[in-house]
Amino acid sequence: MKTYNYTSIPSQCFLGEGPYWHSGRQSFFWVDIENGKLFEHSPATGNTSSMTFPHRLTVVLEGKENELILGLDCKLAKYNLESKDLNWIAEVEQEFPLHRFNDGKVDPQGRIWIGTLSTLFTEGAGSLYRIGHDLKPEKQLDQLTISNGMAWTEDNQTFYFIDTPTRQIKAFSFNLESGDIRIDRIAVEIPEELGFPDGMCIDQEGMLWVAHYGGSGVYRWNPNSGELIDKIDLPVPHVTSCCFGGENLDTLLITTAQENLSEAQLTEYPLSGDVFLVKTTSKGFLPNKALI
Q1: Which residues are catalytic?
Q2: What family name appears in the similarity comment (predicted)?
Q3: Helix (H) or strand (E) holding 267
């Protein structure tokens, strides 16, 4: 295992999530879900800014020029970075007021994939949706508990997905044209002592970088063999997600959380809720933009 150095960016999120590299702005975004906060950090200047929405803010993705796609409670909205206009575009599970979106990504065809969960973490209450150009949510998976990390292989043949409590990363065959998925295999089984798999991203070698909630780090897994091949140790217990970014796409932005920590644990791990920048020897991919 390599030794990694990190730089921490103070954000003190209760539940930091949704890291996203915006190449046009050369900045990282992330969210603090329960507090509805959207953060933006410029590595070039070191400046961090934030704004707050009156909703639980779960996901930040990129749309057309100057637009972000935000997951707010169980609704999707386009947010214009210049005018600050917010326009609602889709909604799911209106009949379940305790539900909210969780992780989301955009596939190579510009479709949004986004999952749900119950805020009571009711087993089997969540689903995974695909939202295409017609803005009609189509359910792809159900009976999920905490719909979480997603990634596609470079050849667009495989979709990886995490339902956190299962401690599994599942591989699905992926049809690029239709967006259909079919379960293929369990790619990785996470041992109990390493915590729970949360958000993830994929590098140019096809390896998965997975944030482990309760596992104090980001772990690099080989989805072909199921083997653990590397780990970034962090001084916080609850690591929630990660994405590649930076000028060379070799820097991980890693989000963390304060939730489920006692006062004593927060004193012991004061950087909980901050985000971390870690330079790696791997490279990721630019994220796909939503074509909606």
Answers
A1: 198
A2: Belongs to the SMP-30/CGR1 family.
A3: helix 263-268
pLDDT digits (tens, 9 = 90+) for 220-262: 999 999 999 999 999 999 999 999 999 999 999 999 999 999 9
Segment holding 170, helix H or strand E: strand 168-174
d(CA 123, CA 251): 35
Q: Which two structure tokens, joined as six digits, stand for 252?
A: 């991980």
Is position 34 annotated in a ligand binding site? no
Q: Is 224 annotated as a binding residue?
A: no
Residue 75 and residue 69 in contact, taking contact as beta carbons nearer than 8 Å: no
- Indicate the average pLDDT of the chain: 97
Q: Which residues contact 133 (CB under 8 A, 6 or more apart)?
A: 110, 111, 291, 292
User: Tokens standing for 106?
Assistant: 């955009």
pLDDT digits (tens, 9 = 90+) for 258-280: 999 999 999 999 999 999 999 99
- Identify the CATH assignment for 6-279 out of 3.40.50.150, 2.120.10.30, 2.40.30.60, 2.60.40.10: 2.120.10.30
Q: Is 288 annotated as a binding residue?
A: no
